[in-house]
């Protein structure tokens, strides 16, 4: 049985966590994430969470708490945004190194100074090298489905997974979301079976000092585990589709016949582009969903299959001194390709809204002779 | 020009008004008491710096017409410590909320107290994270409801002034938004005290705290704060049973101890030629 509910992206995340058979939720408020933990607190108060809910004194404590619970073999979840994620940074590395399969929702919001609430992606992208899987969502349904899939992916690979979506555009926007019953979700994901690292009666010292050589072995094993993610994700989505009728890829491409230009983006901006496609000439969409690991092979395959000449990357972020981050990663993925497309970058850093007019304007400023153009959303 | 208008003109960024605080919020009362305290203490505008953290009360930094730093959640005291060490002659006031100061910033709070640096902390205690919509904080009384504690919080709350005293603060006072004149006087005394002064200002949050806990509207909440406050002089004659559920107000403690920035520069002086 499934039921449509009109909910926002934050509620979709919380309901997915409840459906996933969660053991523990660690909470600390921060805009625009707060609705997620509030919804989970409501579940707990009604006795419907199925696990424990604890609110902590900071984001740093929240993720440290998750580490402890995960070491005991529990399925754990936390959610944060912006400065909260930045504050967690040390623990973010630690979760991955310790191989704790924690799932966290990060709701994109700009990082200060100065204070800004708009959905710049710099918060999650600053964590790209921490050994977390990262998946970006373009709507509430996708948030719901991705959270469930994230638990399956994370626990299989023993790597933490960050499910990322835009503040306000997704977190606070209501849409119809198809929500499977909890017993049906149980067919997709059973109780956690990844095993506890802390086992009563089996004393051991976790995560003590390692030599450089052992540290490298551990880094390499994480790297290799992460490289398995795209194929495993496809398999997980195959199972998900059989149960619930929906599937996603590491990238999802929409290529109208004859498209020679592709717009590549991640998050809510992908949904904007999708709606604009009928008004654009010979232009398709590549929605980047998985960012870590970076699906370079899948991207190159799509670009070659459709013989794409130009890519417009929409980056709601900027690595200062280098440009939009998705554009950089794409350029790196194209290395060695016989006929790489030109890569133009529309930077919406600060969390600037993407409009149809901005897309059309950017597409008009990409002459074929240019290999790379940097465009900004605000003149 | 009436005195109050003169104060507004001198010390507030009138272009930034009206403020964004909710109807019935006590932040305006606490901010106004602070402005009057500056005047009464005889401080010049140029010698005052306001540092604030994150939360409803910290928005005051935007309205106060001084050098103001709106900093990060919990770290206002650390920013202020840096500022005071660089310019020890300035009067540095730090505005924080209960969540900001006692949860995420708890570590900085106790270490600022331990150093006894001459900062003036004003903690607006409305018992809740108001800006994010009503989550429980370490100063939410046990049993009171919040969005993250729909059945009531299980945890015990801090006595902020005792926490500060235990950590080494040399001045601790509690006032309320229901008694703004007393609050102003306490702020003046705190400002003139050399060392870390902590002023807790109990303040109503009718929207995010009061509604959920059925505490009435702004007037009822202010009256409740007033009725529960017991002057420290009277409290000394009351039993702990009689003081249950009450808030002791006034100057709770003040004593002299070496002040960090003075000691630091004294040490530099002592060793500079060695």
CATH class bucket of the largest domain in chain A: Alpha Beta
Shape of chain B: globular
Largest interface: A-B, 22 and 20 residues
Radius of gyration of chain A: 20 Å
Distance between the termini of chain A: 50 Å
CATH topology of chain B: Rossmann fold
Percent of residues in beta strands of chain B = 15-25%
Task: Please tell me how large the radius of gyration of chain B is.
Answer: 18 Å
Tell me the major beta sheet of chain A: 7 strands, mixed
Name the assembly state: heterodimer
Give the uncertain stretches of chain B in residue-range form. Answer: none
Neighbour order of strands in the largest sheet of chain A: 3-2-4-5-7-6-12
Helix/strand class of chain A: alpha/beta
* CA distance, first residue to last residue of chain B: 58 Å
Mean pLDDT of chain A: 96
Architecture overview:
The complex is a heterodimer of chains A (379) and B (274). Chain A has 14 helices and 15 strands. Chain A is α/β, with parallel strands linked by helices. In chain A, 51% of the residues are buried. Chain A folds into 2 domains: 2-190 and 206-244, Rossmann fold (3-Layer(aba) Sandwich); 251-376, Rossmann fold (3-Layer(aba) Sandwich), CATH 3.40.50. Chain A has a 7-stranded mixed beta sheet, with helices on both faces. A 6-stranded mixed beta sheet of chain A has the order 9-11-10-13-14-15, sandwiched between helices. Chain B is α/β, with parallel strands linked by helices. Chain B has a single domain (26-273), classed as Rossmann fold, CATH 3.40.50.970. In chain B, strands 2-1-3-4-6-5-8-7 form an 8-stranded mixed beta sheet, with helices on both faces. Chains A and B meet through helix 2 of A and loops of B.
